[in-house]
Amino acid sequence: MFSGQVILDFVRRVLLFSLFFAGAVWPQQQDKNKDKQPPKPTQQQQQEQEPPEEDETLKPREYAFNPLEAEHDVKVGLFYFKKGDFKAARNRFKEATLWNPSYADAYLKLGDSEEKLKDKDAAAQAYSKYLELAPDGKSAEAVKKKLASKR
Question: What is the pTM for the complete model shown?
Fold first, then answer.
């Protein structure tokens, strides 16, 4: 009856026709949907609607014990410190102390940053916390000398 080539040619033509037809009809369907807008709510409906949810980014950050995040913040803080951006470094070191309040090196670096920013009271507070956490730490003697010279 029909050869394989004729059937294949017929199938190709049907597919091409269906693609062409779908391409012509589909944009028209979208245009119809654009014209339909939801009805505007009445004044009473507007009053009954709940207020929009608060912006999640405006909520204060909650800190739970997370030593990995604290380590990351210290590394980033060291980058800023070496770059000379002591304010950004201080913020990262403070963040590290919030993630891990027993991270002595974060307090040491926080004290160094505060010292560079000429905030002696904050530096002394950070150094004291460092000595409280690591009284025999590798920088303990130098920190004790710094605290003694500030008094």
Answer: 0.62
